[in-house]
Amino acid sequence: MTREIAVVAFGQTDHxxxxxxxSEVEMLIPVLHDVLDQAGLKTGxxxxxxxxxxDYLAGRAFSxxxxxxxxxxxxxxxxxxxxMDGAWALYEAWTKLLTGDADTALVYAYGKSSPxxxxxxxxxxxxxxxVAPLWPDSVALAALQAQALIxxxxxxxxxxxxxxxxxxxxxxxxxxxxxxxxxxxxxxxVRPLRTGDCPPIGDGAAAVVLAAGERARxxxxxxxxxxxxxxxxxxxxxxxxxxxxxxxxRLAAExxxxxxxxxxxxxxxAPFTSQEVVLRKALRLDDRVTVNxxxxxxxxxxxxAAGLIRIGEAAARIHRGESDRALAHATSGPCLxxxxxxxxxGDPR
Length: 349
What we know:
The model has no long low-confidence stretch (mean pLDDT 94). The protein has 11 helices and 12 strands. Helix 10 links the parallel strand 9 and strand 10 (290-291). The chain has helices at 24-39, 55-58, 64-71, 86-99, 118-121, 138-151, 157-170, 213-219, 247-256, 273-283, 306-319; strands at residues 5-12, 48-52, 79-82, 104-112, 188-190, 193-194, 203-212, 224-233, 265-267, 290-291, 325-332, 338-345. By secondary structure, it is of the alpha/beta class.
């Protein structure tokens, strides 16, 4: 890489079960103002803007164009959009800054899951010929993965409950989290997954500002430098995959340089407790690494923003001096199908 790129600001909404009184634009505007204020920038100072969202949640085509009203697209701006989690929008913005075409970038993502059935909406990610017509929902597919882990001896139901309890306890200090503190495991949703093993349904948004080189140091006291970032994908057909492992996560981590030196913090996009087990193994995370100090996706899961939030939360810990080298992970698709890994570092103290 010929340029150093850093996250210099991160903001997010308070994630809520419903936000019927707000449009996507109204939900976004406070977050966009927050990150620009943190960096001391105005809209006209941003060289590139990229967003992540999905029309399937909104139920209308090209819904992301409405969100540009919150950004301010006049005079004309350099802008792009990905029909993915905002973590992939950050990847595009990072690439743009590496080319030298811009020195700053605004990345944002949002999702309102409350209006419809998320479990049904996510079936649209499946193979349209052989799998989607069977309507296996996202929880049922995650339960297949969890059962595979249990059958292989990699986890059991008490261990999964322990993941949930730790995540919700960590979220107790996160004012943005939807679920905080002790939350009962509850009844089975799809065996072996109980309510506590599954993410909450809710609405939310997040944004980050990226900057290059010395511009980043001027905008932030301790920038979170992106030392590496990579994303990979598993085979589309679930039947040819080993659901107890995630080779794509391991390869993305390797290419991002995650294994070169230990990390002290990891923010994992693991919507289900069983998926944290898979990711810990793939990323070689031991008990010395603080995993999901924000509470992770089990505490708040704004679809299309949750992965970007993992990068933002990791960066924020570096900004505050609570971490020196952090790993952030984002996923999309059933059973950890697509995976992105970023490694962030702060300047030596």
